[in-house]
Specification:
- The protein is of the alpha/beta class and about 325 residues long.
- It has eleven helices and ten strands.
- Strands 1, 2, 3, 4, 7, 8, 9 and 10 form an eight-stranded mixed β-sheet that branches. A two-stranded parallel sheet has the order 5-6.
- Helix 2 runs antiparallel to helix 10 and helix 6 packs across helix 11.
- The radius of gyration is 25 Å and the shape is globular.
Length: about 325
Amino acid sequence: MKKKQRIVSVMVVLLMVIGLAMTGWAEGSKEGGGEKAWPAKSVTLVVPYGAGGDTDFNTRTFAKYLEKELGVPFAVTNIAGSGGTIASRKVKDSDPDGYTILLNHTNMIMTEVSGVVDFGFEDFEMACVGAVNADVLTVAADAPYNTLDELVEYSKSNKLKAAGTVGSLTQMETTLLKNAGANLNIIDVGGGANRRAALAGGQLDLIPNAYGSILPFIQSGDMKPLALLLNERNPLIPDLPTAKEQGYDIVVPMMYTFFLPKGTPQEVLDTLSAAVEKIVTTNDAYAEEIKKAYLQAPFFMDADEGKAEFKKIKDLFTETFKSMQ
């Protein structure tokens, strides 16, 4: 009888130990689909444009450092087309498990307000803003104007051809300059590489492009920048004035933002945001890499700040788009 009681007692203890172990396992694995905290496997970062551009560069750079920070592969895939909307829709409709992430910027606002798509940034979960850049209004090196005032004055008797991809930031940028008095014929020639080629070949007189993408042409003496489209000068390009300080209120930041499908667990968003913030604010190698490639300075905004900034930009774009019509 005593032997049976001892066996029962041992079995009770074993069951209690197993129960405690299972409870601890469950508590430690609530994230990432109920098996392991996110990320438990490879994560896909989607670039909504072609390879070789500024968004592609920022995505691939973050992928490299996020892999080191979070311990799983971050695979980059480019899904170009329709101003980034094909990729955006694909991510929007993906499973909200944290394993498909879009890195897009404020062009997403333009595609919505222009009616290219019926959704926008509010249809995603925003984790954080990890970087910022802006286009530079650029002309041929031998153009007879060196400031926006001179360009506007020249255009009054010589209508200029400017690049502006329909439903994109570049359309917004050149339209804002047109509304400010420049006599422009806005032409859609495609993406950044096409714009550079058209300016170099004389088919266009003015293009908006990221500074890093035109730097080789500036250094070769083929192009010259007239204005940066940010609120303040980039400290890494101190001699390049903004359009705003030249008297033209054209501020169109490209805020590279991590978007995930609606319903993504908050724990995933917080983990991703914390990792990005650590990279941006503490990693000297990352800072040197973005400086060398695009003359970007490290920049971070949390989700609340990012949403507020996107809302302000959406209000501006909505009003400006009315003038386009």
